[in-house]
Amino acid sequence: MRPFVPEKHREDMVLSYHRVRTALGLLGMALPLVLIIGGLMDYRRIEPSISDFYHTTYRDIFVGTLCAIGVFLICYRGYGRVEADYIDDDWLGTIAGISAFGVALFPNESPTAQIATMTQNLVGIGASPLFHYSSALIFFTCLAVFCLSKFARSAKPHRRKIYLLCGWTIVLSLIGIAGASAIKILGDGAAQVFVVQYGLVFWFEAIGIWAFGLSWLVKGRADIAILKLAGHDPGPDEDDPLRS
Questions:
Q1: What sections of the protein cross the membrane (predicted)?
Q2: Would you tell me how many other CB atoms lie within 10 Å of the CB of residue 198?
Q3: What is the dihedral of CA 135, 73, 241, 146, to 10 degrees?
């Protein structure tokens, strides 16, 4: 038997969950946009990848935003595990959050780096990119699982379409990141120049993060808030973080 939860407390807890989801969505939507604007204003260019902004004056924004995302994901409990699940929301969010910290704190390779960071001293400068890219792979994979499995499972049809679109966008972005990164690091000639010149890694990363941000904004009921502001009644919502 589930314990009785007063309606006021229930509403407060639901609101808290929605705020966490909305915060994750806003952070995801804002990070690439801030880096694009900052890069164009300060350097007249966009770095070849989002991770390369670690080696610029925008390091604090890159690291701070990813760490904030990591904290929110680790704190996010979500729904309990059901029979069809291999992992529950809590563990999935924790793994995603830890990997976000890995992306933020283990720098990728930089030919201009002069001073080793604490994490580079810990694992070695040469090994730091391996931790960085492994963390990024786990991070994007967890985000795709949230959209394709967790969010889509209990969503209404119109929201389910959004979650599936976001999830597959993240998957395709991850494939694009892997391919473009391989050409950027290992390739030579016209293909490598094309990838670097047009910032393909950056744009694949940005699209994937924007898809992540959109899915969490929808999960945080930002779409319902917009409809209410416009004077429309969206009807009852399917999201209830207290249901088992």
A1: 20-41, 61-79, 91-110, 130-151, 163-183, 195-218
A2: 13
A3: -20
- The helix/strand/coil state of 242 is coil
Rg (the chain; Cα; Å): 19
Residue 36's H or E segment, with its range, is: helix 7-43
Q: pLDDT of 76-110, one tens digit each?
A: 877 766 666 778 888 999 999 999 999 999 988 87
Residues near 97 by Cβ (< 8 Å), separated by ≥ 6? 69, 70, 71, 72, 73, 74, 75, 76
Cα(200)–Cα(31) distance, integer angstroms: 17
CB 152 within 8 A of CB 163: yes
Backbone angles phi, psi at 195, to 5 degrees: -60, -45
Q: Which whole number is the average pLDDT over 60-89?
A: 85
Q: Residue 45: helix, strand or coil by DSSP?
A: coil
Tokens read off for 93:
């969010």
What domains sit in the chain, N to C, each tagged with a CATH number? 7-229 (1.20.1070)
Q: What is the largest CA-CA distance in the chain?
A: 66
- Cα separation of 51 and 205, whole Å? 9
| pLDDT at residue 179, rounded to an integer | 92
Return the closest-CA partner of residue 123 out of 139, 107, 111, 99: 107
How many whole angstroms separate alpha carbon 132 and alpha carbon 125?
11
How far apart, in whole angstroms, are the C-alpha atoms of residue 2 and residue 92?
Answer: 24
Q: What is the pTM of this model?
A: 0.81
Q: How many residues does the chain have?
A: 244
